[in-house]
From TrEMBL:
Catalyzes the methyl esterification of L-isoaspartyl residues in peptides and proteins that result from spontaneous decomposition of normal L-aspartyl and L-asparaginyl residues. It plays a role in the repair and/or degradation of damaged proteins. Keywords: Cytoplasm, Methyltransferase, S-adenosyl-L-methionine, Transferase. One of its GO terms (cellular component) is cytoplasm. InterPro entries: PCMT, SAM-dependent_MTases_sf. SUPFAM superfamilies: S-adenosyl-L-methionine-dependent methyltransferases. GO terms for biological process: methylation; protein repair. It is found in: Cytoplasm. This is Protein-L-isoaspartate O-methyltransferase. Pfam families: PCMT.
Length: 214
């Protein structure tokens, strides 16, 4: 659980890499610089923590590539105190980025093993989400809706209607849509029934699980 000057130096290099790929939001770059990604990874991958790559974590899931985390976060346009719904807590790295940006994060994880692990881990490293839940991300979290921003960190074969309905007017939903390859998609809610849609190229994510959480 150590964060050394060497790790901080590697993070600064990672920030330069992510910036060179087009990330411009200084707050997002600051979060990538602040968060000790190596602590979110299994010990066998720690030496690779500051490469701009995805790596396996528990339950056949992955910790996303830092560029992808930064890209999705930049699209969200996070403001302090934004109420953000995250679908797919995973390792908690994306969650930590949102918390570093002073968002109030409500996060759902489908995999019980990951949920239990990350729920204990995040507070230990100083990142406290508003609420974490083991559940079905396709249903969103109506109890706490509406949300200013919603982020989906797994490949969705379609856009779940509950997520669109739980978005505030003016709110932003960022979701990778597709089966084998996903198109990063941004929805901006204009009014009760109208959404503005923008597409941002191909990405690869682990699939968003369809079955209900047990």
């Amino acid at each position: 659980m150590h964060d050394t000057p060497k790790h901080k130096g590697l993070r600064n290099q990672l920030v330069k890499t992510v910036e060179s790929k087009g990330i411009r939001d200084k707050n997002v770059l600051g979060a990538i610089s602040n968060i000790p990604r190596h602590l979110f990874m299994d010990s066998g991958f720690i030496d690779f923590a500051y490469q701009d790559k995805a790596f396996p974590i528990a339950a056949d899931q992955t910790i996303s590539q830092p560029f992808t985390v930064a890209f999705q976060t930049e699209l969200l346009q996070i403001n302090p105190k934004d109420k953000v719904l995250e679908i797919g807590t995973g390792s908690g790295y994306q969650t930590a980025v949102l918390i570093d940006l002073k968002a109030e994060v409500y996060s759902i994880e489908r995999q019980k093993e990951l949920y239990e692990k990350t729920k204990k881990f995040l507070p230990k490293v100083g990142y406290v989400a508003k609420k974490l839940k083991h559940g079905d991300g396709y249903k969103g979290w109506s109890e706490y809706a509406p949300f200013d921003k919603i982020i989906v960190t797994a490949g969705a074969p379609f856009v779940p209607k509950p997520l669109l309905s739980q978005l505030k007017i003016g709110g932003r939903l960022v979701i990778p849509v597709g089966e084998d390859v996903q198109i990063m998609t941004l929805f901006i809610r204009k009014d009760k029934s109208e959404f503005e849609k923008h597409e941002f190229g191909e990405f690869r994510f682990v699939p968003m699980l369809k079955e209900s959480a047990k």
